């Protein structure tokens, strides 16, 4: 029996209009979404887009979508590192897509639902790039599709078929694996991915779950107190040390090439001592 849900989230880093970086100022911004005050999990907190894996994210139907739009099975091999130890969240399940595929679909689906940013490639797009691709929708259709996907995750499949695009899985790099502390009302084993964009795309938060959306440089978040969960605080501290988005891309490439086992991070709350 599992005591948590499996989920995936996506850190979106977008290059600013002026790409110059310095020792104190980053040349990119991170996407943040503020959870609704009435949310049952982390109400009022700023988080990265993401959510629990849905059965549709693991359906073999996605293989048909990828094949129809020019993606052959050989391309998926790069998503599965050839190392002995992989996180528990990647444990394969019979008759389902490998978790290296389905969790990325989860992160992309949830990012679209919550922010309106569709990290996908048009069919037959074989461009080799380290940047994530995104597909834009007319504004009058965007909220309609966000609501449809919110109400029924299967509609994300329908959206990709309609737009003739497929999730840009290869743009999502493994970043961190977090497990919610035991004292939280809901617990998630969360796979956190990172994708880099060459510019800041249009975004619109989905009002059923979120109440704000913003792009901020990592260093501008230092003065903000009390509105970020612990994992997000740790990630902010990590990003503050990286000023250039090119350096960020290089770091993810190095991590992928090293093929080190991804560690599971599990926050522990320290109790105050009762001893004088």
Condensed summary:
This protein is an alpha+beta fold. 26% of the residues lie in helices and 20% in strands. The protein is globular and about 45 Å long.
User: What is the C-alpha radius of gyration, as a whole number of Å?
Assistant: 18 Å
Please identify which CATH superfamily we are dealing with: Nucleoside Triphosphate Pyrophosphohydrolase
Topology as a string of helices (H) and strands (E): EEEEHHEHHEEEEHHE
Count of the separate structural domains: 1
Low-confidence stretches: none
* CATH topology description: Nucleoside Triphosphate Pyrophosphohydrolase
- The coarse silhouette is globular
Briefly note the structural class of the backbone: alpha+beta
Question: Number of helix segments?
Answer: 6
Distance N to C terminus: 41 Å
Mean pLDDT: 87
Beta-strand share of residues: 15-25%
Q: What is the quaternary state of this protein?
A: single chain
The main sheet comes to: 8 strands, mixed
Q: Which CATH class applies here?
A: Alpha Beta
Using DSSP, what is the number of strands?
Answer: 10
**Can you give the helix content as a percent range?**
25-40%
CATH architecture: Alpha-Beta Complex
Task: Give an overview of the whole structure.
- Belongs to the Nudix hydrolase family.
- This is Nucleoside diphosphate-linked moiety X motif 19, mitochondrial.
- The protein is of the alpha+beta class and 276 residues long.
- The chain has one domain (5-256): Alpha-Beta Complex (Nucleoside Triphosphate Pyrophosphohydrolase).
- It is 26% helix and 20% strand.
- The protein is built from 6 helices and 10 strands, in the order ββββααβααββββααβ.
- It has helices at 61-68, 99-115, 139-151, 154-163, 230-240, 245-258; strands spanning 5-15, 28-35, 46-47, 50-52, 120-122, 165-167, 173-179, 188-197, 210-216, 264-265.
- The strands form 2 sheets. Strands 1, 2, 3, 4, 7, 8, 9 and 10 form an 8-stranded mixed β-sheet that branches. Strands 5-6 form a two-stranded antiparallel sheet.
- A hairpin with an 8-residue loop joins β7 and β8 (188-197).
- α2 crosses α3.
- The longest helix is centred in the middle third of the chain and has 17 residues, at 99-115.
